[in-house]
Amino acid sequence: MKTLGIIGGMSYESSKLFYELINNRVNDILGGYHCCKSIMYTVDFDEIVKLQNEEKWDDLDLIVADISRKLELAGADMIVLCTNTLHICSDAIKNSVSIPYLHIGEAVGEEAKKKFIKKAGLLGTKFTMEKDFYKDVLKEKYGIDVVIPGEKDRDTIHNIIFNELVRGQIKESSRNKFIDIIKRLERNGAEGIILGCTEIPMLISEEYVDIPVFDSIRIHAEKAVEWILKDE
């Protein structure tokens, strides 16, 4: 088994879930007492949020690049970034290390393509929904067009993520707001919904909507495990 290098802490709620997912998946496959060989570097999320809000992406590039180098030096064989939003810094990570990097958008795009999705609704932070770094991967590599919620709905999603989900708060009223937003995306032509924030699956799954849902954190975790076990 290869060793997975994880950049986490954004938020610790999603990092906790990712860690559980990769270890459960390895144990499901290998049985016994097996778990995932991994090295996790967690950041202070408050520092990251401040830089995101100020859109200091160059500073964030430097941070994730430095962490990636440390993970490689510590023995990681592949890097994963346990957050959707900071995939805007993917080039900085890839350029800083000699080991593979698994982009969450590529993992999601591969799964969506298997289900013949041509147009997907994207839910996430305002940065993920409004900027092109995620949409471009889906369109250019997998031919998937992306539709995003309207401005008011984007604000609602962003506020629920940062005021509730990253703090581990699950509210039925917020779930209902997400369901309504998803229905609007479906009316706008979405054939599937990408949960493009690693906290959103705490609130939404296919149990609550009548449209295919792509859980980015679960898909990312499964692809990462597939990679580290591919020679087993």
Write a structural description:
The protein has 232 residues and is α/β, with parallel strands linked by helices. It has two domains: 4-104 and 219-228, Rossmann fold, CATH 3.40.50.1860; 105-214, Rossmann fold, CATH 3.40.50.1860. It is built from ten helices and eight strands. Helix 1 (12-30) links the parallel strand 1 (4-8) and strand 2. Helix 5 (104-114) packs across helix 10 (216-228). The termini are close together.
- Named CATH topology of the largest domain: Rossmann fold
Query: Biggest sheet, in brief?
Result: 4 strands, parallel
The CATH architecture category of the largest domain equals 3-Layer(aba) Sandwich
Number of helices: 10
The fraction of residues in strands falls at 5-15%
Low-confidence stretches: none
- SSE arrangement, N to C: EHEHHEHEHEHHEHHEEH
Percent in helix: 40-55%
SSE blueprint and pairings:
Elements: E1 4-8, H1 12-30, E2 38-42, H2 45-53, H3 57-73, E3 78-81, H4 90-94, E4 101-102, H5 104-114, E5 119-123, H6 126-130, H7 133-142, E6 145-147, H8 151-163, H9 172-187, E7 192-195, E8 213-215, H10 216-228
Parallel strand pairs: 1-2, 1-3, 3-4, 5-6, 5-7, 7-8
